Amino acid sequence: MQRSKLDKIGRANPTQWGHFTTATTVVKIIRNNHPHQLFTSLSRNVYQERRKPSRLRFFNDSNKKVGLNCLRNRLTEIFNAIDFDHYPNISDEGLRTNLKRLLF
């Protein structure tokens, strides 16, 4: 994506920016399996779709609203807007531009 097209999108509000930074961090954690403790925590809330094995779905396992303070329970809202099929194979710069296009 060219810089002129990104400038037309405008600035992100705090919610959009938070979703963007969380999404980039989670994709990098899943791609690299590092840090291992956070990766195992995230993998408890992930399942693969039967028809598209490469597509990951996050779900919320909290029983109360306070459970949304945990990172792994907030990912459902963010990753429902994102098609995760190509992100494990994309470069970091391509990841940033694609997520900006989807979330802003």
What does this entry look like structurally?
Strands 1-2 form a two-stranded antiparallel sheet. It has 5 helices and 2 strands. It has one domain (3-103). The protein has helices at residues 3-9, 14-32, 36-43, 71-79, 92-103; strands at 46-48, 56-58. The chain has 104 residues and is mainly α. A hairpin with a 7-residue loop joins strand 1 and strand 2.
Keywords:
globular; two-stranded antiparallel ribbon; 53% helix; single chain; 5 helices; 104 residues; mainly alpha; 6% strand
List the helices and strands and how they pair.
Blueprint: H1 3-9, H2 14-32, H3 36-43, E1 46-48, E2 56-58, H4 71-79, H5 92-103
Antiparallel strand pairs: 1-2
Helix pairs in contact: 2-5
Give a nutshell description of this structure.
It is built from five helices and two strands; from the N terminus they run αααββαα. The protein is mainly alpha-helical and 104 residues long. It has one domain (3-103).
